[in-house]
Design a protein that fits this description.
The protein is built from one helix and three strands. By secondary structure, it is of the alpha+beta class.
Length: 63
């Protein structure tokens, strides 16, 4: 099961933490998604990278 995804919304990329079962704990999947989004942000059409979470975002890292 993937714990993160990147959504391309045209002028912005949204990184979604999908680790709701662990109260949004950070995971290697999330770190990889953030890295992918930042690499994709080199495209001139991307004006922002947003971070969000499903089910809240309050727990520490789960590595």
């Amino acid at each position: 099961m993937t714990l993160a995804r990147v959504e391309d919304l045209g002028d912005r990329l949204v990184v979604v933490n999908m680790n709701g079962a662990r109260r949004g704990a950070l995971s290697p999947d999330l770190y990889a998604a953030i890295a992918d989004a930042l690499a994709g942000a080199r495209d001139p059409r991307i004006r922002a990278v947003l971070l969000t979470s499903e089910g809240g975002f309050s727990a520490p890292a789960a590595i």
